[in-house]
Design a protein that fits this description.
The protein has five helices and seven strands. The protein has 160 residues and is of the alpha+beta class.
Length: 160
């Protein structure tokens, strides 16, 4: 497996990984809402801005010449936020998410980060286990509107 910074050419594969992961994980969402959300988050302009933004890292995991997962994080002052962390369902539980986390953490520490945060749906038990195994602790709750619905979220924090 190779980990590397994302390029503009990776956008379509990244969008398809996100789409597959969302459809696999968030079954409480309408499939059409998932597709619309993923398309909006990974359109050409938004993605180009994400990979060029100072204090931002977008890392991909490539296996056998194909992308298997990616992560996207950003640093605000001394806190790093994991904005996205997805591994294609066909490649989950192979250590890709952990490797992506470690590479993202290293990249964001270059920006003087003292803690990392990740936010996920409260209903995502797999996400909870993943972050807790990495040493994150639940430190808050919130909510997000997707489509016409509001969903509970959990904030996880890792002190460095």
């Amino acid at each position: 497996m190779e980990l590397r910074p994302a390029t503009a050419d990776d956008r379509e594969a990244i969008r398809e990984i996100a789409r597959a992961a969302w459809h696999d994980t968030y079954d409480q969402l309408d499939p059409e809402t998932i597709d619309e959300t993923v398309d909006a988050w990974y359109d050409d302009e938004t993605f180009r801005e994400a990979i060029d933004e100072p204090g931002t890292a977008v890392i991909v995991a490539e296996r056998d010449g194909e992308l298997a997962g990616f992560t996207h994080g950003v640093v605000y002052e001394d806190e790093g936020d994991v904005l996205r962390m997805y591994v294609h369902p066909d490649h989950q539980r192979e250590g890709i998410g952990t490797a992506l986390h470690e590479r993202l953490r290293s990249a964001l520490e270059d920006f003087s980060m003292n803690r990392m945060r990740a936010i996920d749906f409260a209903s995502n038990e797999g996400g909870r286990r993943f972050y807790e195994e990495l040493g994150f602790e639940q430190t808050g709750t919130g909510g997000v509107e997707i489509g016409d619905e509001r969903y509970d979220e959990v904030v996880y924090t890792l002190e460095l």
